Amino acid sequence: MTTLGTALRKRLENTIREAREVADEAAADAVARLAIADARPPAYLSDRQKALRRRLRAHARSLGDKLDADDTMETRRLAEAIAYEHWHRMLFGRFLVERDLLIHPKHGVPISRGDLKELAEEEGFADEWELVERFAAPTLPAVFKPDDPVLELELDPHFQLRLRRLVTELPEQVFAADDSLGWTYQFWRANEKKEVNERQVKIGAAELPAVTQLFTEPYMVKFLLHNTLGAWWARNVLAANPDLMRNAPKLAKPEPNRRFRARSALGRAGYFWMICRFTSARIFPQRGCKLN
Fold it and tell me: Do 183 and 13 contact (CB within 8 A), yes or no?
C-alpha cells in the first residue's frame, strides 16, 4: 500500500485548508447574489435563477437551515454544502483522471489529464470539471449528483479559477497514494475542529462532524473490522461446524493460527481475517479455543 509521506501530506493539508477558505468565500458570494436568505427574490434575477433559488431554499431546509416566519432563512448549512460539493467535484475528478478511472462513455477508454480540457471544449462543456461530472455521474451518482441544485449553482469565475489552480497544482503522487482521499476529509474540517475545541462548547449536532470525522489509517480500520465482524463470523462458523476444530494445532503466540483463519474464511473467494486475534478458550471451552 502506498501512503503519503510527511512532506506530501503537509502540502495536501495546506492546499485543502486554502481551498476551504476560497470555497467558503465563493459559496457566500453565490448565496448573496441569489439573495437566498431574503424573503423575496431580487427583481434582477432571471426566471431560471429564480427557479434555482427556490430549489436551493428547499435544499437548505432539508439540510437543517431554519426558515423564519417572515420567510427569511438561515443559509449556513447550504453555504457549507455549496463550498464542499464544488471543491469535492474538482478534487475527486482529478483522482479519477490520475488513476485512469474516468472512462469515455462512447469509446470506453480512460481520459488522460492532457486530453481533458481539449475534450471539454470539443464537447461544449463549460470546463473540464463539468465534463468529469457528466461522464462520471452515471457510475458514481452518490459523488457526482447531476440533479443537485448546489452543483447547478455557478460560482464566480474568480473563485473557480482559484479552486482549479489548487487542484491542478497538487503533485501526481498525492493522487497515487492510497490514504490521500481520506486525509482530504479530515483537513477540510480542520479549522472547524480547532474553533470548536477553542470555544469549549457543548458538542451538539452542528459541531459533531467537525470533531468526530477524523481520518483513520487503513491498518486501524482493518484491525477493528477483523476483530469485530471477523471475530463474530469466525465464532459462528466454527460453532456451527465443530468438526472444523478437530485436531486443530495448539494456538501459538505471537503468530495466530493459520488453519483457524482458513477454516473461518468468508465467502467462496476466501476472505481471511488476517488480523483477527485468536487466543484460547471461549468458542469451544471444552476444546480449548476462543476468539478475543
Answer: yes
Contacts 24+ apart (CB under 8 A), 222-228: 222/274, 222/275, 223/275, 226/273, 226/274, 226/275, 226/276, 227/275, 227/276, 227/277, 227/292
- pTM for this entry: 0.68
15's enclosing H/E stretch is helix 6-33
Whose cell is 427574490? That residue is 41
Alpha-carbon gap, residue 155 to 130, rounded angstroms = 13
- Span 109-162, pLDDT tens digits: 888 888 888 888 888 887 787 788 788 887 777 777 778 899 889 899 999 999
Cα separation of 228 and 205, whole Å? 28
> Phi and psi (nearest 5°) for 247?
60, 20
Residue 148 CA to residue 89 CA, distance in Å, equals: 12
Say if CB 31 and CB 79 are below 8 A apart. Answer: yes
- Locus of grid cell 479519477: 96
Q: Name the residue with cell 477540510.
A: 188
